[in-house]
């Protein structure tokens, strides 16, 4: 019996092919369906009493708590404050990590001098450095920005250095053969080749920066999503805690999709 909807079959069939190229519509449909199934299962488990509400409230209670926070607790202001802190720290980390990472791979004296120290520092847990941060910067905005920067810079600089190392030596040699200077090799060959992976690494490390938000905003904070979550935890308001977590996740999802779109538009040839 012939299929009555061959277009739908063709649309979704590529999803089951190894490294197949599915249409954005098919991928979006699967993403929405998977998320809906998870939320529905969560709601059913909570309503059936399988999960105690004080540990994991139902999605409907989380939505109610989120609406209350939006209308009565100035949640939008806290979101703006947290987003500003994250972007300041991330842009500062990127502005420092990109040139340093490129220099580390381009000139071995720089890599030999900096790489062991960066490897040492990036394994230090950020929470362990909170007391030192307070001693150095006090309890103001500087400490929060520093902790977010700390969780981003040392990871990003090594990713940039690795991107630079992957530039094919043949490209550099050909550029030298036709008379390119070191600056031209850097701008016209290396940066153009590493551009797609660099944007991807920036997208990934921006997500890492968000993961340190709670740590940064429990340091004598009176604003921000981390502060809201920490205050709700103190009074065992689990729906509000979950609502704050969902807000961070939604901001991350939207930001990630926008950066993916920017990547696709900027590098159409991939």
Automatic annotation (TrEMBL):
Keywords, A to Z, come to: Cell membrane, Membrane, Transmembrane, Transmembrane helix, Transport
Transmembrane regions listed in the UniProt entry: 32-50, 86-108, 120-139, 145-161, 209-230, 242-262
Could you tell me where this protein is found in the cell? Cell membrane
Q: Does the keyword Transmembrane helix apply?
A: yes
Q: Which CDD domains match?
A: TM_PBP2 (cd06261)
Give one Pfam family: BPD_transp_1
What topology in the membrane does the UniProt record assign?
Multi-pass membrane protein
Q: Chief localization class?
A: membrane
Judging by the UniProt lineage, the source's domain of life is: Bacteria
**InterPro entries, alphabetized:** MetI-like (IPR000515), MetI-like_sf (IPR035906)
Q: Which residues form the ABC transmembrane type-1 domain?
A: 79-259
Q: What GO terms fall under cellular component here?
A: plasma membrane
Q: Which GO terms describe its biological process?
A: transmembrane transport
Family to which this protein belongs: Belongs to the binding-protein-dependent transport system permease family.
* Name of the protein: Nitrate transport permease nrtB
